[in-house]
Every structure is written in C-alpha cells, then in structure tokens.
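Field reference: sequence -> structure
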Amino acid sequence: MPGLNSSNVPGVAPAPTTYSTLNSTFTAPVSTSTPTNPCTSDTPSAFQSYGPFTTDASAAPVPAGYSQSFSNLHDKVSKTGYIGYFGLGGYDTITCAAYCNDNPTCGGFNVYIERNVGEINGEACPSPDRRARYFCTLWNAGVNAKEAVATAASRGRPGEVVAGSNGYSRVY
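Structure field:
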C-alpha cells in the first residue's frame, strides 16, 4: 500500500504533528521542530515509567468491534503483515480504530508512545531532548503481546524507547 498516512485515509481527518516533552507540548513539522531543552537529564527508563503515559495506556477506551490484546507494554508490535502507520495528536485508540476500519485488510492495531531523541548528542549532551511521539500501526491480522518485541533502540537508535503500548484485535 503506497504512502499510508493520516492525510490520505477517506473520512478521517489528519492529526496534527504534535510533540510532547515531559515538560511541554508544541506542534511543528518534524524537519523544523526545535528541542525546547537540548540537554536534559531525562533517561529512557524515566520515560517508560512516566505516570501520565501509564495512565493514558491504562485508561484508553477499547474501540467498538475490537478486543484489547495487551496493555501498557514497553515494546511495539513487530511481525509480518504490516500495513502502515499514522502519527497521532495524542493517545487516541478511537482514531486508530477508524484508520483500521477504513482499511479492508486491517485485522488489528498497536497504539504506543515513542521517545524520540533530538539531533544533538555527544559528550556535551549525553542525553538529548526527548519528544514523545504517538503512533498507530496497522496490521493485517490481530496482534498479541508475544509480537510486541520491537524497540526503537533495536533499530540502532539508542535512547529511543517505547511506553504505553496497547494492542487491539478486530472481533469478527
């Protein structure tokens, strides 16, 4: 499926590209966003244990027509059958379900928060500014906790971790 993103799904309004740090939220395109504090003392483990992320995942509604497969994990789904992903403006299982519903091959989805580090790094800035980015990934079959095994760090991006990962499978 070519270029799947929130701007080309019929009937679903595109979400703003919103980035949150643990101290502030701002909206900006990826290429021009500027870290609010380029050298913070935040750590990947602090990001994963951040209370509001846990609350978002735990309190997220289960969309009609889906069952919850897992909740509040620190990894995202990685398996065959990937359809595409969407950036979300916040923790929004209902919008993600709408994206899945609009795709006839979608059988499940994963909503999660990923810690993306800023561009500044090195000895002077060992822990660059982090941004919480909310994602929705679509899959051609239901998802389960055993498939939630991928972290951003496993893709060669140290310091990027996942929090609040929830999985949902379509009920037929």
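Note: The two ends are 23 Å apart (CA to CA).
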